[in-house]
What does this fold into?
Amino acid sequence: MPLFAVGNTHETRRQSSLAGGLLFWGLFSVVAVAVRGVRWDENHEFAQAILGLIHYDPGHPMYVYTRGLYSIQTWALAGLMAVRDSALLVNGLRNVLFLVATTFPVFLWATLLSRRALTGHVAVIVVLMGIHVSFYGNYPQFVWPGFYSNGHVGTGWALASAALLASPYWRLGLLFTGLMPMVHLGQFPPVFLLAVCRVAYSSWWRKERTAALRAFPGLLLCAVFWLALRDFAVPVATHGPYASEITPDAVLAGYMTHFASHRALPWGTGHLLLAGGLILFAAAARREWRVEHGAGPFGWLFLHTLIVTGIVWGTMAVQRTLGSATPYLLLAWMPYRLMNHLGPLLVAAMVAMPGRRSMMAQGFPALAVVLLLGALRPVLGMVVPQVLFARYLADGAWAVFLLWGASVALLAMELRGDRRFVRPWLLCLAIALVALAVYHQFGAGCVLIGMALSALGGCLSPSTAKQHGGWGQPPSRGRAVATGGLAVLLALVLLVGQWQHREHLPVSPFEREVRDYLAARGDPDALIVARYQQEGLQARLGHPVMTDMASLTWIPYRPSLGPAFYGMYRDLYGLDLAPPPGVNPMPLAWFEVWPRKNGTAWRRLARKYDFHYVLAPSFMKLALTPVVEGDHERLYAVEMEDMAE
It folds into this structure.
């Protein structure tokens, strides 16, 4: 019987299957983090600044931003660190949460769509291959824990909430939706719209008039959290080194014009996911409506995809038309990041379709090829010429194209009697394939191979197909066992690959020398100036750092910090965040600016911003005193006693 069959008879079985699967992937996340090693997390640095464990000047952007950061992810970790300041514990918990955000939504969606928990497990393993990460617009996708976790956890929460909204547990999904603003506000809008549609459908179809109240407790908690944060927020500097006469609007305009890469028009491969999702899910929803005579999980999946696509392409149309005059609020919440919702959703759905009982025979060959080649990928990297492997096999994009081709072929056969829908749908499919062949010839070839594999799967069991009226066949235990076995093999290969790069909270030998040197000097709060592209240096050194890779991205979230960043980046890196029209904001790269500063210039900056050390790459020579030498970096001290008044 279907796992998600409606009715009290199967409620216990449904709940136990879901609970057991989620428990398994929760334990897997813990084991996987232990296997690969705990990695540094951005929230560890934020929490250090909030609690004063790493001391920043009250006007420094790091302190001002984190104290007003509306994110339960950061503040919950700060609360834990207030009780137990263990870097291994807090970063390990964030790493586990990172993997939970990868695995839980995919398991929920694939189980929901296929009505089989086994398929949900297989889908998670396929996602852990990372076959979808090369498809994005202007914001990268992730699978395994890395430094930047807030956005990934937000995506996981959004997709899990959407899965619950599409399931018999949609009332719980409303609660999750209500809680989402304080988890990740930027990815809340599409889930909110899906929840509105779910409530409207239930009110009309199921006559449940009070369903919307299920979201009220979550929204109330978000409001309470926002009010509580007001007691911790600190104002931006109005005097001192981080104050500037330039206006926040001028800096915001300059940032949006020259530096807002995550908010620029996205022309990447993420659009393939949007178009592919619309085509695939429209057919799946149509088939579902014909069979079940109502909105099912594929219908809600199609609606979510339609909402995301409408937001992304609609925003692009406005930005393309208005250019720099595009309203700030339209882009501030980073709508193009929503393209990343489609990667995990597509993989879950494309694994779920051959996992359905009626499609297993046809879908098995394509899924088996993906699992087998995924498990053999380390061997293929040694056998296949490196140029060919890097170009065609390394990133796993071939598997996405192949599974998509297999899935559309399955749906074409399932819907072959529905001519009113199939004819225009096939026309759209043909246009999409021609466009793909122009843009990505290898991808189009993989799509055709996937279609052929589905056809082959149907031909391999002709007698069974005939007995059951065509392609609707009962599942084969042999195919299920083979699929499960290949999935287990792939999971082991993935874990072995992570083990080979195992390292807990990595700190380079040079960074250890720097920590020891500063400790011996008795300078625990020494502020360090480093290149502004660095990541995680504060956590690794245990010292405040002037700025890092993500700092500038805070400007759209907190425009009032713009003047502070303007002065810092102009003085230290030669970067103008608010250049006049037609003027290059960075005529010289920062690594050309630093060697041109003499000792007097460095000392003047050190007095203004109260820093005593500069960490620079070894290839540049600064007019300062080197104190720690590394293979690739060098720490300089600023000798303040020689500074002329």
Remarks:
- Residues 87-114 form the longest helix (28 residues).
